[in-house]
Amino acid sequence: MPLLSNCPTSTCCKSQAITTASICPTAHANSWNEEKKKYFKVEKSSTAPSASTWSSDAVKRRKVEHQASEVVRKRDWELRSHIKRHRLWEHTVASGTLKREIRDDLSWEGGDSLKAAAWAGGLEAKGEVRFGSHHRRSGHLPCLWIGGQEQGLETAVAYTSRSSLFQYWDVPRSYIKIVEVVLTGGSAYSGGRRNPVDDDGKLSFREDVPLDSPRRPVRYIESTRCSQMSSISYHQASHRILLTSREPGNPLGLNIFSPPRCRGTEGPWILGEAANHQRISFSRLWRHDHVALNTCKPAPPSLPHLICAIATDSGLVSVATDESVSLITSHNPFRSDRNRNRTHQHTRTPRDVFDLDFHPTNPNIIFSGGRQPRVWIKDTRTPPSEPCRHITHPSSVARLRAISENQLLVCGPQSAMAVYDVRFFPTPQGGGRNDDDNAPPRPRPGPLLAFPEYVNGAHLAVGFDVSPELGIAAAAQDDGTVRLFSLATGRRLACPAMEARGKMGMPIKSLMFQTVPGENSQSLFVGEGLWLRKYSFGTRELDA
Question: Please, what are the domains in the chain?
């Protein structure tokens, strides 16, 4: 196509709806090429090739087509104000309920997202209780466990650690206090007192009342040799509280104790009087004690021989009911350039693990993730040296949860939060050498669902919990806020109660969903500073 230089006239128009001769005298008998941003010379159709785009007939045909499309576009622009959407569709719950009612079939694909949006929209603050009376604060509650209806308790109990918040002059450094707070009352171990809970489930504790007042929170203290506590969990089958620590140098092991009961094995817990504190030693697994225990996951009831699985910075460890300890993954030696096999071992098994979870239907399968940007699958029935299947995650794995039989939710720094299908994890080939340089590259499985509104720049110790029953994931952001996400769509759910908290500056470290005895739905508990805040579904005002 014969092209001419750009028009020297700076004020000439480049619209195709007006002829170029009327715009720019220097471009007479020329036409504008929108793609190349230049004028080209128009040739007569009698001399130009039949398929040419610079012939006069082709230019006229394009001009007519452009004018027709402009007429259609202008009409659509004028009619846009004639189409109005009802304001009902701006409300997620109301519009979703209407869609469900007008459908003929019984199955509705938007039911899960509607349920999650309704719960998040109706969430309200239901009171708070404070751990301790000190005013000096250095951060949020480092870890949290709440026992409730799922554990068969008549009274909800909250466990946390104050070791990273305070230092007590009257307590030796080797003893760290664990505070236990009764959230709902009605048990014999507290002297027949009932802790105040309103009819709508709101906690009404007060610190400015006498010590014998029923409105004063009931606190109990358990002292244990476990500093820098990283996690608190409960194994229901053996009735043991499990404590892990990140402090190096201390005798390495899992700290456990069992709260005594009032009436045999089924009575209420007697808090603050546990005398059977013990430590299950891990010294035979490693030659040194500089191993941090990051978290602990109690074994499900379908594994009666196992107490828990533990994530450490040297792999995965299991603790049996006879208190024997074994490696789930082989110990990764320190990287050495002189031994290529040792170096290669870092790519086959997880190391520096931050979180783990059991498969919902097959508890012999364990998911784990840590500092490496990978999500691992390990079958506990295989030898520890057996390579693990894995997929690549955009960042390190801070927290993960198995939300269904085939789906795994993973979150970490760099605002990376996604759902993966565990059926597409590649299987190692050639005896586990899945990193062979000569092998053809395999397609990497991507996430099923992404969470673009999750914000976490560089934090690993962040609060995170999932409620598959509600279809909601609660995740702490790096600015101190807590956001709720839908497991069906990955979108952030509008929650006025959480938005009213504001930004706290530091990320929340402990979150937990739990059903309080006497209530029908789950509540979200947030460890904010020294306070444990409760958020439940409810409405302040009901229309008559």
Answer: 20-82 (no CATH), 86-121 (no CATH), 122-432+443-534 (2.130.10.10)
